[in-house]
TrEMBL record:
Keywords: ATP-binding, DNA replication, DNA-directed DNA polymerase, Metal-binding, Nucleotide-binding, Nucleotidyltransferase, Transferase, Zinc. This is DNA-directed DNA polymerase. It comes from Filibacter tadaridae. Pfam families: DNA_pol3_delta2, DNA_pol3_gamma3, DNAX_ATPase_lid. One of its GO terms (molecular function) is metal ion binding. It catalyses: DNA(n) + a 2'-deoxyribonucleoside 5'-triphosphate = DNA(n+1) + diphosphate. It is an enzyme of class 2 (transferase). GO terms for cellular component: DNA polymerase III complex. InterPro entries: AAA+_ATPase, ClpA/B, DNA_pol3_clamp-load_cplx_C, DNA_pol_III_gamma-3, DNA_pol_III_sug/sutau_N, DNA_Rep/Repair_Clamp_Loader, HLD_clamp_pol_III_gamma_tau, P-loop_NTPase.
């Protein structure tokens, strides 16, 4: 293109003047075509330029080094180009060249990180109403906009919503969640994505070709992987590797400078895991850490390595998606040696280890423990396969038994024997057993003993304290006792009736509830009552049995006695207790206001 010659001339002039600049500064994109990735951003902005539908405020958000500021400058040049607004800036006119050099007074770059106060923002707002001196638009590029103070955001708010027609604001940030929603809603938002390793490698090839430096493909791949989607990071590391290696970039130099791990080391470690050789695996780890490899970065690289093996194992046709290793045949064969479940387990172990290392000063211990877990999980996987085989053999045995049973049933049908009745006889005991195993066993003897010595005073005392006691118990316990009612009490125990049998069964299986209930009553009444649970239906039957037994005893033995008097008193009390349907709220109200002032209405 026509603009490439002038930009390259500027770059060559910088080299001739021996004013060395970093690669990421010298090779900053000067047009949309030079931008790597971000196709959705480029196409939208170019269409807006072509159809003259540009707006007054833009928000560029995304990870560091993905081209936000570069896209803002290219967009500013395309707006103010003498041939524009154009799809691409010409990079030849005075406006484009001055913006490239940073000397255009109508394109203002504002660093919010170092100018976050409201005074700096008011200075911009006061000057924005003045028309541009030479360009078509006055463009304000506010970098790291999330660093502005709340006062600065408030000052910018109205101007950002209705700026003068000649003003365009471009806000760039790596943390859009820190921006007020009132700011975000006034901008067109563009989310910049991490740049793919393929795009990073293509850009580094252009840079090295322009600089006249040879390189291995593997070295560029190592740098792209270490950059984690950031073009600026990739060019900075490339600059460092070039300074270290000289005329040609090698894989060894790239590994040493970036702190990454070579394919051979990964291969040896994977062989140690396959062979369950803990000594070799731990020695390799110790060697890598002694060479200065970052432990957290080591865990991340191992996760990527096993991800690549999993990709080769499950989708060998997608070798272009490999990130850390090549599609060498040795890795293809190694991937076949691992089961997918084992690779999944390795990734899970390393991911958990990576999280745990963040909060510890002993990261080496965690990574070593992770490798040992990975060695042992292979054995457990083998044992699990053995268990599966055993289960399969048992399953086949069951299938054989069922087939034999089917043959017998077919013979019975031929002979005229009722199959359904036989099946019912087979399944009926099982149903009864299941039902009985899930039913509540009623403590009839304890209930009879409590009824025999029941007193009105004790049941009234418990009922009066019941509502207050429920408020002091745990919420889970109180919820389980919500539909219960004390129905009889002696000096030592009381009977608690449940509306539903399932709730009674759950309460009987909760020892902490029983002890907590007794303790709560003891603290309020001064007596340690034993709690006896009973479902409502069972209570009616036990009560009836008790009444009948005492009535029969009275008829068989006409002699009056103290026991008979107690029985009569108990019977009358039980009937009275059943007739009373005391509401805990009514009881509590009577305690506060007195019975004479309380009237209960039934809805």
């Amino acid at each position: 293109m026509c603009y490439t010659g002038n930009i390259n001339a500027l770059r060559q002039k910088e080299w001739e003047l021996l004013v060395y600049q970093a690669f990421y500064r010298v090779y900053r994109p000067q047009s949309f075509a030079e931008m790597s990735g971000q196709q959705h951003v480029k196409q939208t902005l170019q269409n807006a330029l072509l159809h003259n539908k540009t707006t007054h405020a833009y928000l560029f958000s995304g990870p560091r080094g993905t081209g936000k500021t570069s896209a803002a400058k290219v967009f500013a040049k395309a707006l103010n180009c003498e041939n524009g607004p154009a799809k691409e800036p010409c990079n030849e006119c005075p406006a484009c060249l001055s913006i490239t050099e940073g000397s255009n007074t109508d394109v203002i770059e504002f660093d919010a990180a170092s100018n976050s106060r409201v005074e700096e923002m008011r200075d911009i707002i006061e000057k924005v109403r003045f028309a541009p001196s030479s360009a078509r638009f006055k463009v304000y590029i506010i970098d790291e906009v999330h660093m502005l103070s709340n006062s600065a955001f408030n000052a910018l708010l109205k101007t950002l919503e209705e700026p003068p027609p000649h003003a365009v604001f471009i806000l760039a940030t790596t943390e859009p969640h820190k921006l007020p929603l009132t700011i975000i809603s006034r901008c067109q938002r563009f989310d910049f994505k991490p740049i793919t390793p393929i795009d990073i490698i293509d850009r580094m090839k252009v840079v090295l070709a322009d600089a006249g430096i040879n390189s291995d493909e593997g070295a560029l791949k190592v740098i792209a992987q270490a950059a984690s989607g950031g073009m600026r990071d990739a060019l900075s590391m490339l600059d460092q590797v070039v300074s270290f290696s000289g005329d040609k970039l090698t894989v060894e130099d790239a590994l040493l400078v970036t702190g990454s791990i070579g394919e051979d080391t990964f291969h040896h470690l994977a062989e140690a895991l396959l062979g369950k050789d803990a000594g070799t695996a731990l020695s390799l780890l110790d060697q890598l850490i002694a060479e200065g490899k970052d432990v957290s970065r080591l865990a991340e690289d191992l996760i990527t390595f096993f991800r690549d093996l999993l990709l080769l194992r499950t989708a060998p046709d997608l070798r272009g998606l490999l990130e850390l290793i090549s599609s060498d045949e040795r890795f293809v064969e190694m991937a076949k040696a691992f089961e997918p479940d084992t690779l999944y387990a390795y990734i899970d172990i390393l991911a958990k280890t990576q999280q745990e290392m963040r909060f510890s000063n002993h990261a080496k211990v965690y990574i070593e423990s992770a490798v040992l877990k990975m060695i042992h999980i292979e054995g457990s996987h083998t044992r699990r396969e053995g268990n599966v085989q055993t289960a399969d053999s048992g399953f086949m045995q069951k299938v054989a038994e069922l087939e034999q049973m089917i043959v017998q049933l077919q013979q019975q049908v031929v002979n005229g024997v009722g199959v359904q009745s036989a099946a019912e006889r087979t399944t009926q005991p099982r149903k009864n057993a299941s039902k009985s195993s899930q039913s509540f066993k009623v403590p009839t003897g304890k209930i009879h003993e409590t009824l025999k010595f029941a007193t009105k005073q004790d049941i009234h005392t418990i009922r009066e304290e019941w509502a207050g006691m429920m408020r002091t118990m745990q919420k889970s316990h109180a919820a389980l006792l919500e539909e219960t009612e004390p129905v009889a009490a002696s000096e030592k125990a009381f009977v608690l009736k449940f509306k539903y049998e399932i709730h009674c069964l759950m309460a009987s299986e909760n020892p902490s509830l029983k002890s907590g209930l007794s303790e709560a009553l003891r603290s309020r009444t001064g007596k340690a009552y034993e709690v006896i649970y009973v479902p409502e239906q069972a209570w009616l039957k036990v009560r009836e049995d008790f009444i009948q037994k005492n009535g029969l005893a009275k008829q068989q033995d006409p002699r009056p006695s103290d026991v008979e008097g107690v029985a009569e008193e108990t019977l009358s009390f039980v009937k009275e207790a059943e007739q009373e349907n005391v509401d805990v709220l009514v009881t509590e109200a009577e305690k506060i206001f007195g019975k004479d002032f309380i009237t209960v209405y039934d809805d």
